[in-house]
Design a protein that fits this description.
The chain is built from 22 helices and 23 strands. The protein is of the alpha/beta class.
Length: about 575
């Protein structure tokens, strides 16, 4: 039977067909929908969970695999940085049930803080890697990944990119491979306990596995030779294969699905049968460098194709076939539309106050990172998940001698990010005598990725009720003085300002918590506000809160602020900003 599936739906389907019974992830674009689809369609057979971060997601999956279950861990590319510690050692322990780690990379940074090519992780951690080129392969290769994982006693890296995760394709679906439920839990201390004495002999074993995997790749259908016009031989993988095939369908192709370790004999053989080899790949010269190291002459690679950003199909067409594609005029001339906070978002008022206070704001990853953009311009640094508190602490230590209030630091972090890895930063600050103010904006959801549960929502991904971790109690337990733990109403600008000023004056760590849920997820809508045109002076101050419900309407003296009642949630933030009382509840 055939179905049209998104790449992420196909991965979820592949997990089900492969007999997976355990899946864990931290949500992150472009990987989020994998677990959402497992939950929606396959949770009868697959236990699935959101984990507090990617490291814990991989660790629980390793545990499940050691117990004998086929297990899946999913994350976006930067998440693998967080999970790198268990990853590098899980390659040493090996597994019992198959274990696959999905790394969903985001070339061009559609929604990420950096652009990294996680194929490099395969080489670095010595883990076999599969790369699908479309939805069908996303499903089929995932099943193959579990076979490889069990056959070679190793986790497998399953690397996708946004264009694979978020594109649809026709997929021939199959049935589930039912696997016997593990009944025993063998004790194998030498295999699973990585003391130096047990780990040392594992390294040569891993090298032997990689050598065997090279041989395996020579005959595996995961790697495919498509001979056509032998004047041009293209070595490629992933979405780059689709672009190259479209550009020069008649050329010869070595399409690699098992992209680490590379099938050396197959590459050499392919190169001998074509006049020239061109390597087409996105981001780093991962394949090109390895092919060159084999002594195979590569006539073109990164000298033709960019090392930065998504590989554009038009660029591939131009470089391979010499066909220039005109950029449509409308697309070239369109104004850019920066992302904005939702109408009624509880972050809006907080950033308005932070801007007013002119403190240094150390930000984190979440919707609230938008506080860095105009008109707020109220976030001055943002590094990575959980980094806001530690960065603020480092800055405040260096600026400790300064009496200038402008040098005071406020760390802004959401609830999900706090649970992810902000907690350890706060422990660092408390332990090492910091004095920053930490604002935890608890909107009770992982908002930026579409509204997933957190350890504070009282519900698991499977829909079961769960203990709700109380952030206020947690920070008190960590050691923040009770007088320095403040809960404020994010929509009450005066209160937010007063409390922040009080906490900024203290020489020790403070935590200010907002507990206003995400308007989008909880569908909050009060009576909309409206502008009194008589009172409005057209000063445009209200526009500074950057709400899409607000605009200026009319010409000349008639030009006044206006609120679209369809968008306005009645949050009142703009009315608190208007000095002329021109904005009132409708
Ligand atoms: S802040 Fe008040 S007076 Fe100024 S434009 Fe907005 S509604 Fe009008
Ligand atoms: S009250 Fe003002 S800021 Fe809040 S949603 Fe309505 S227009 Fe936007």
């Amino acid at each position: 039977m055939k179905e049209v599936l998104l790449g992420n739906e196909a991965i979820a389907r592949g997990a089900w067909e492969a007999g997976v019974t355990f899946a864990a992830a931290y949500p992150g674009t472009p990987s989020t929908e994998i677990l959402q689809n497992i939950k929606a369609d396959y949770s009868k057979d697959i236990y699935c969970q959101w984990s507090p971060n990617e490291k814990t997601a991989l660790e629980v999956a390793v545990g499940a695999a050691i117990a004998g279950a086929r297990s899946l861990a999913c994350m976006k590319h930067v998440g693998v940085n967080v999970a790198a510690d268990p990853l590098f050692t899980a390659v040493y322990t090996g597994i019992r049930g198959g274990l696959v780690l999905v790394s969903a990379d985001d070339p061009y940074l559609h929604s990420s803080q950096n652009e990294q090519d996680n194929r490099n992780y395969a080489k670095f951690s010595k883990i076999p890697m599969l790369e699908p080129s479309d939805s069908q392969e996303a499903k089929d290769f995932l099943k193959a990944a579990f076979e490889i994982s069990e056959q070679f006693d190793t986790p497998v890296l399953f690397r996708t990119t946004t264009r694979i995760n978020h594109s649809k394709g026709v997929v021939e679906v199959g049935s589930r491979e039912e696997r016997p439920k593990p009944t025993d839990l063998p004790r194998d201390v030498k295999k699973y306990t990585m003391l130096p004495g047990f780990a040392r002999p594992k390294h040569p074993v891993i090298e032997e596995k990689l050598a065997k995997l090279k041989e395996y790749g020579v005959t595996s259908p995961l790697n495919r030779v498509e001979m056509g016009d032998t004047s041009l031989g293209i070595i490629t993988s992933g979405i780059s294969y689709a672009y190259a095939k479209e550009a020069v369908p008649g050329a010869s192709f070595l399409k690699l699905g098992l992209t680490y370790p590379l099938p050396e004999a197959l590459i050499r053989d392919f190169a001998q049968h074509v006049d020239r080899v061109v390597v087409v790949e996105e981001l780093d010269p991962f394949l090109e460098e390895q092919v060159r190291l084999l002594g195979v002459e590569v006539s073109h690679g990164k000298d033709l194709f960019p090392i930065v950003g998504e590989l554009e199909p038009g660029v591939v067409l131009e470089k391979l076939a010499g066909v220039k594609t005109a950029v449509p005029a409308a697309a070239a001339g369109l104004p850019t539309r920066p992302p904005v906070m939702c109408p009624g978002c509880s972050h809006r008022g907080v950033f308005h106050v932070l801007k007013k206070l002119k403190v240094f704001v150390s930000g984190d990853i979440g919707c609230y990172t938008l506080g860095a953009l105009p008109p707020f311009n109220a976030m001055h640094a943002c590094l990575c998940m959980g980094g806001s508190i530690t960065m603020a602490h480092g800055i405040s230590k260096v600026m400790a001698g300064s009496t200038d209030p402008l040098n005071r630091t406020v760390a802004v972090i959401g609830d999900s990010t706090f649970f992810h890895s902000g907690i350890t930063g706060l422990i660092d600050m408390i332990w090492n005598g910091g004095n920053s103010v930490v604002m935890i904006q608890d909107n009770r959801i992982t908002a930026m990725t579409g509204g997933q549960q957190t350890p504070g929502t009282g519900q698991t991904l499977m829909g079961a009720e769960a203990p709700q971790i109380d952030i206020e109690k947690l920070v008190l337990t960590l050691g923040v003085k009770p007088a320095n733990v403040r809960v404020v109403n994010a929509y009450d600008l005066k209160q937010v300002e007063t409390v922040l000023k009080e906490e900024l004056s203290k020489p020790e760590p403070s935590v200010v918590i907002t507990k206003d849920p995400c308007v989008l997820n909880y569908r909050i809508k009060d009576r909309p506000m409206k502008v009194d045109p008589e009172a409005c002076t057209a000063c445009k101050q209200c526009l500074q809160v950057s709400c899409i419900a607000l605009s200026m309407q009319g010409q000349g003296d008639e030009r006044k602020a206006s609120i679209d009642p369809n968008f306005c949630t009645g949050c009142t933030v703009c009315s608190q900003v208007c000095k002329f009382d021109a904005i009132q509840q409708a």
